[in-house]
User: Fold this.
Amino acid sequence: MIFNKPGRITDDIYMLGPTGVPIFLLNCNSPVIFDAGFSFLGNKYAKDIKNVLGVREPEHLFLTHAHYDHCGSASVLKSHFPGLKVTSSEKAKDILNRPNAIKLMTTLSKEAERFAAKGSKKRQSAKPFEPVVIDRTIKGNDIIELEKGLSIQVIETPGHTRDHISYYIPEKKILIAGEAAGIPDSTGYIVTDCLVGYDMYVDSVEKLAQLEIEMLCLGHDFVYTGADAGKYIKRAVESCGKFLHLAKTCLEDEQGHMESVMNRIKQIEYDSKEGIKQSESAYMINLKARLNAVQNHLNNNTHQN
Ligand SMILES: [Zn+2]
Assistant:
């Protein structure tokens, strides 16, 4: 099945907050949250968590990566749930300690809040981005035992960012993939979001495709269960090749003129997309990074030949 609405997926997993920027709750004896969305949605996430857990409190927050739309409300959630232990990769922790990264995330969070409030008369109860203290760091292949018969396996999945981690719960065959397996839109098109490295990104998606998956929770918009989970991952792998081909063709046609290449790809990936989407400026910044990643891949392969 394909879920694109917040709420209960199974008794184990809940998608909370808005579907566009969700967080996931693993409901067990020591409840776990995966990712922390935007800072300005912090109170909304906390309310949703309380609706599911009642008087119980989440014990862990695991971050996939240090992007402001995935770690934004970590400090807000800590203020709601003082016992919450925040876990990330060592690289994510480094980023979250850097003053320039904090400054950038503060600016981008404000921008996202303004963008989200567009057209809505309701004033957001603004929670500015605040840095969070990381309580524990993890690395690839670590296994965190939550309780008897329930564990979280850490999988390093760089490519979208260098610090990206995915989480796999083997006993339930649940994969929290963040943005390591692309971002699908409502038409089924999967954006290959290889911001820092095309080859790294492909290796990561292929690694995830090896897992036995009954439920796949993506960083934005969708949860897939049953056969749809496996089908999605297979398509995510194929999408990498398609994006490479598209970018290569556009770069050749436009003789490397970046602005024309970006506009052509934007028409396909962004302009034709309906409904809620990221701001155009955020999309363009990411597209530029993705094209740089592809160009590096193409240059490296030319040198090898
Ligand atoms: Zn990201």
